[in-house]
């Protein structure tokens, strides 16, 4: 058996890994640069900051909800490598538009620039919607059965390491630098995408349904009746709803509770990415390549405990003097920073251990000619859950709930996810 890391030497895996890595890096670089720019340079109100972040998150998810069914059909009836090449070409145009929006806002045309940036986020959502099913569905086609879990773990770990790098870079370079870099990375990703090996249609050619509502309903209805798929998708959806809440509240929380600047915000978000990547590798080691939900309930319960611990730490954090923000050096030498960062890492590690085996379920439960549609059905439900999470943050923010206290809602959601994962484990193991 080729070890999981050994897959990185394989021609059938490396180009796909590099392509998805660069895509995740670029997507996160642009979004993080936009969010940090808006949080620290445009808005000066915690509720406005949360609402802007929630709006950006919601816009990025709309395409998943509307177009995932079509993307799954296309991926199961068309050469997946061909779709990758088309998607990566589109990314170059999207980044040109988004970079222009950043520069417009930077030049003082704030409203127009924000509109362009948010539109680019919407377009990036379309980009990710069509690429998302492929990066998982292509694995059973290119890898052996006993390599799928390892490949899935590497894709997941690579994605979060890319998010890590994109987050760190976004916090340390200028807006102008971000605008240039997203274009450069899009170009390199286009080259990598052209090296992905062919992955032609395996089953009969599908009659495509272009109606986003009927196609989504039929896709979900055709997938969710399988008990363990239903449970796996529900568990993953709760995880991403949790992720949506954390994504929305965290930059304002760092600014207004930890009273730290955008570089610290970048560091804390990067800690999440490192943790999920570590969790992705750890769970593959524990399971030794076997696809199982054995550790999922305990992992997400541990995540809930860590979230509550972070809530306590945030409430007891000693803020910077009024009108000031901690820089990276001041924050790292703060007596409470080690515990804060360790708790964040623990939240992310346990989250990665929870979600990776569930994605492996999606690609191995059905036949290889149905994997893309299965992942697409998962994306539809996930996006709906994340939109619900974003709307919940907006509603609670308008009701006056503090960002820190929303962490307790995250802990409750973790308990629900643990209950679903327990049912999945009993049904499948």
From TrEMBL:
Membrane topology per record: Multi-pass membrane protein
The entry's keywords: Cell membrane, Membrane, Transmembrane, Transmembrane helix, Transport
InterPro entries reported in the protein's UniProt record: MFS
Pfam families xref list: MFS_1
Locations listed in the record: Cell membrane
Main localization (coarse): membrane
Transmembrane segments: 21-43, 55-74, 86-105, 111-132, 153-173, 179-197, 229-253, 265-287, 299-318, 338-360, 380-400, 406-424
PANTHER family per UniProt: MACROLIDE-EFFLUX PROTEIN, MAJOR FACILITATOR SUPERFAMILY (MFS) PROFILE DOMAIN-CONTAINING PROTEIN
Record-given protein name: MFS transporter
Organism in which the protein naturally occurs: Stakelama flava
